[in-house]
Design brief:
By secondary structure, the chain is an alpha/beta fold. It is built from eight helices and five strands, in the order βαβαααβαβααβα. The structure holds BIS(adenosine)-5'-tetraphosphate.
Amino acid sequence: MRLVLIGPPGAGKGTQAGRLAARFCVPTISTGDIFRANVKGETALGKKTQEYMSAGALVPDEVTNAMVKDRLVQDDVTAGFLLDGYPRNPEQAVQLDAMLAELGIGLDAVLEITADPEEVTRRLLNRARLEGREDDTEGVIRTRLAVYADSTAPVTAFYAERGLLVRVDGIGDVDDVTSRIVAALDAR
Ligand code: B4P
């Protein structure tokens, strides 16, 4: 299973990625998690990316693409992977195509999890209370939603044209959303 997960911040990408990775026995590659681990570890990559993340902006493509390219050649992803949060703009989608072509593999599906801005804002503000993530403040959430609409939403059209897009409603109980996703993927 080679799957991409797309959705606005707070739609449930990371939440569902963990469940789907366990179900399909493939590793998750979450660009957001990799960046956050690097920020926490104060690595060179973390220092390069922190200001973009805390502002709710996308990390520059050359940094993100190189990181994903390195990850996709590691041994544990030969049997499949779940890409969570990448690609996030059309340029990244083109780069991902090139990386996969070089490896002689393709995607099985691109899963878009949908949720309205009011619901995702509510969820992210709740996460801020629980986890204190610095990009979960009201102003930064607004920026992240605008970046999603401008840069990431067009990526869904890119994959819809290739017949890869599967759209699932992300509103409701986490277990119900997982069941909906599994049913939609099974139906393909
Ligand atoms: P991400 O880590 O991808 O952050 P996110 O969009 O907020 O999604 P996340 O997976 O964390 O949250 P989820 O919806 O599961 O990106 C963070 C930053 O990293 C970006 O702003 C950017 O700066 C950088 N970045 C990452 N990828 C990049 C790329 N490719 N290019 C450039 N920059 C990149 O969950 C949110 C909350 O909702 C959780 O608290 C969860 O418990 C809750 N929730 C989930 N499902 C729910 C449900 N059904 N009901 C109720 N609550 C639910």
